[in-house]
């Protein structure tokens, strides 16, 4: 199959189901995508299925950071931090335009013990990354880097480098790269049960959630990479502790930042951050036990909203930030392995675990940054169940280099780099498909109108929220989910999607409900009026 998902491609599902596969990956988040890429590039016939949309779960609702996890050092997780720092460096090298450096600034108000601890941790950070940087700045120098974080009590500050990404696009880029190597990925196909033969797992019974059709797929090995949903098919393994992280999106003009600001929350001392992301400012995160179950989308609670606003008002009192300034919210559930003790959520480990039984390998836990390392660990365990497959599983480049695309009219280097990072080898086709006025940026974002057309044409869109919440992030970056631009969005995307007017109205109603319930302020009652 090509590297695209053109309209009508789902008609190939019966033929795909009839094939014999080496591995069947269940789960279309970053872990499953990473496994599909590493398996397909190493010669395995690999199929991935996702019951909802690609990146629908945790992998579109993370904190958007590609980082080593500085706080994990204080908890003694040296191996995890070293691995994450090295994977961060690999992503910065291999995914320019998608994974970008992000400077962090930590105001110091005279706590010398905390300063020494952080500087010692950053020395290890530098050692793991193979670099050496200056991290302490006196008060005047720090004020130049982070003017909005200045206070009369400021003694100076600590600065360090991590990275940020668009997590949903990271998943899509990884899947597209896998498809270049022959991997196949299908969204809205639910694995309902495992198939067994002679005492081992031999495949799965699937359901096309769009058509309601059942099918059986045979594979030499099934890999359960369902994240927080891992184990729902009956696999044995560690118990998961679902933890919810909630975030706020504010306009950049209300909280203008050149650096990410990291601070300790005034109530409990947990780290909270705010940083520039996609033309807005992202604030996060909470870390609480998620007790609402996993059958519906997570959403921020009133207590979490109050918690994050308290941090902002403490750090930026001069800005007089209010709830009315919030453009959108979002919440994700982290698949953390339960340790069996009573540690606070923020103290729970972020390691991953891989376990197996005949015909089945499952993975639980882990973090966004280390998806390649997790995928290779999974395949090392899988190798014993795939006789004849002898790959050494040595790490290689995460993505193949691609040249910068050229635009019909001259675009500056930054948007071209951005498109190349997010779309890889398809960036040129995206630009070639654009209408003349679609190379402009959608106000309030860094997204080109042309990205909407390409997503509708070639990126497996089944529903409007796929388009506005994951292929692009308009639903997070613009007030009321981007409804102000709905008329133009419809004009561009409806013909590409092949939806009639009734289908469009149905999709808008569903998107409205989703956005109001899971991406707005808690108990928000405002009705979204379509402008189309």
User: What is the CATH homology-level superfamily of the largest domain?
Assistant: D-Amino Acid Oxidase, subunit A, domain 2
User: What is the CATH topology classification name of the largest domain?
Assistant: D-Amino Acid Oxidase, Chain A, domain 2
* Helix segment tally: 16
Mean pLDDT, to the nearest integer, reads: 89
Describe the structure.
- This protein is α+β, with helices and mostly antiparallel strands and 532 residues long.
- It folds into three domains: 9-58 and 168-239 and 349-385, FAD/NAD(P)-binding domain (3-Layer(bba) Sandwich), CATH 3.50.50.60; 102-161 and 240-340, 2-Layer Sandwich (D-Amino Acid Oxidase, Chain A, domain 2); 413-518, Orthogonal Bundle (Helicase, Ruva Protein, domain 3), CATH 1.10.8.
- 33% of the residues lie in helices and 23% in strands.
- The chain has 16 helices and 18 strands.
- Strands 3, 4, 5, 6, 11, 12, 13, 14, 15 and 16 form a ten-stranded mixed β-sheet that branches.
- The longest helix is centred in the first third of the chain and has 18 residues, at 112-129.
């Amino acid at each position: 199959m090509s590297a695209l998902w053109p309209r009508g491609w789902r008609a190939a599902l019966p033929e795909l189901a009839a094939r014999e596969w080496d591995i069947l990956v269940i789960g279309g988040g970053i872990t499953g995508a990473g496994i599909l890429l590493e398996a397909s590039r190493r010669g395995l016939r690999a199929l991935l299925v996702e019951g909802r949309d690609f990146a629908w779960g945790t992998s579109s609702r993370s904190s958007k950071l590609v980082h080593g996890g500085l706080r994990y050092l204080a908890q003694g997780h040296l191996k995890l931090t070293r691995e994450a720092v090295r994977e961060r460096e690999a992503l910065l090298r291999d995914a320019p335009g998608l994974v970008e450096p992000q400077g962090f600034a930590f105001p110091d108000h005279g706590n010398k013990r905390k300063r020494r601890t952080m500087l010692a941790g950053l020395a290890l950070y530098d050692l793991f990354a193979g670099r050496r940087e200056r991290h302490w700045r006196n008060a005047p120098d720090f004020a130049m880097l982070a003017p909005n974080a200045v206070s009369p009590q400021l003694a100076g500050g600590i600065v360090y480098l991590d990275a940020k990404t668009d997590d949903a696009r990271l998943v899509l880029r990884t899947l597209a790269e896998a498809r270049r190597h022959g991997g196949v990925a299908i969204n809205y196909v639910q694995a309902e049960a495992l198939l067994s033969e002679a005492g081992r797992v031999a495949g799965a019974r699937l359901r096309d959630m769009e058509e309601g059709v059942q099918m059986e797929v045979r594979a030499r090995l099934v890999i359960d990479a369902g994240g927080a949903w891992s184990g729902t098919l009956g696999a044995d393994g560690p118990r998961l502790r679902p933890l919810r992280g909630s975030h706020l999106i504010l306009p950049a003009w209300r909280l203008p930042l050149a650096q990410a600001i990291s601070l300790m929350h005034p109530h409990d001392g947990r780290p909270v951050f705010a940083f520039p992301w996609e033309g807005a400012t992202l604030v996060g995160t909470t870390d609480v036990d998620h007790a609402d179950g996993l059958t519906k989308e997570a959403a921020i609670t009133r207590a979490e909203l109050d918690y994050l606003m308290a941090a902002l008002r403490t750090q930026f009192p001069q800005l007089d930030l209010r709830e009315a300034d919030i453009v959108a919210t979002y919440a994700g559930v982290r698949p953390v392995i339960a340790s069996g003790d009573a540690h606070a959520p923020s103290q729970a480990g972020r390691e991953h675990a891989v376990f197996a039984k005949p015909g089945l390998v499952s993975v639980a836990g882990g973090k966004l940054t280390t998806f390649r390392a997790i995928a290779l660990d999974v395949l090392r365990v899988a190798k014993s169940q795939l006789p004849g497959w002898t790959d050494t599983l040595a790490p290689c480049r995460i993505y193949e280099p691609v040249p910068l695309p050229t635009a019909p009219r001259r675009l500056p280097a930054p948007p071209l780099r951005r498109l190349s990072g997010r779309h890889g080898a398809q960036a040129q086709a995206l630009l070639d498909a654009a209408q003349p006025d679609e190379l402009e940026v959608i106000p309030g974002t860094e997204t080109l109108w042309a990205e909407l057309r390409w997503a509708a044409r070639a990126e497996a869109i089944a529903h409007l929220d796929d388009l506005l919440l994951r292929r692009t992030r308009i639903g997070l970056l613009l007030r009321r989910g981007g409804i102000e631009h709905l008329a133009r969005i419809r004009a561009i995307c409806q013909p590409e999607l092949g939806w009639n007017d009734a289908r469009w109205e149905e999709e808008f109603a569903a998107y409205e409900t989703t956005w109001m319930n899971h991406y707005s302020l808690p108990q928000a009652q405002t009705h979204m009026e379509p402008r189309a």
